[in-house]
Amino acid sequence: MGREALEAYLSFLEEYAGFFEETARHEEEKQADLKSNQIKRIEAALSRQQAVVMEMSNLEKRRDALQQAAGLGQADFREIAGQLENGERERFLQAVERLQAAVTGLRQSNAQSMELAQDRLDVISTLLPELPRETYSPYTSRKGPDHGKSSLFNSKI
Fold first, then answer.
1. For residues 50 and 104, what is the distance between their CA atoms, to the nearest angstrom?
2. In the list 25, 84, 108, 112, which could disulfide-bond 88, CB 3.0-4.6 Å?
3. Per-block average pLDDT, block size 10, for the chain (157 residues)?
4. Residue 26 contacts by C-beta under 8 Å, 6 or more apart in sequence?
C-alpha cells in the first residue's frame, strides 16, 4: 500500500463526507421549495437534485479509483480499517463515521421530500382527475408505466 495513494484516498474520503454533509443541508432547502408550491422553485430544486446525483456518481467513481490505487481493492470499510495502522485507521474511521451519518440523514430527509412530493402529486390528481395518474407520477416516465423507469425521482440520494 503506497503512502501517497493512501493519503490521497483518506483525503478524498474526508472530502466525500463533506459533500454528503452539504447535500444533506441542501435537502432541507429542497423541502422548503417543495412546500412553497411555486413551480419555479420546485423546478430549480429538481434541477439541483439532478446535478447532485451526477456529482455523486462522479465522486463514487473517483472513490473507487483511489481505493484501487491505494491497493485496497474492493474491500468494504470494515476490511479497510483492519488493514490500516493506528493513525490512519483513526482518520479513516472518523471520515467513514461522518459519511455514514450524513448519508443516513440524507436518506431520511430524502424520504420526507419524496413523501411531500407524492402529497403534492395527490393534490394535482384531485384537481386534474381527467388525466391518467401515470402522466405525472415521479415514479414512471411521462409516457406511462410501461415505457421504462427513467425518472429523476428514481435516483435516490
1. 19
2. 84
3. 88 95 89 84 86 94 95 92 91 95 91 84 75 55 50 50
4. 48, 52
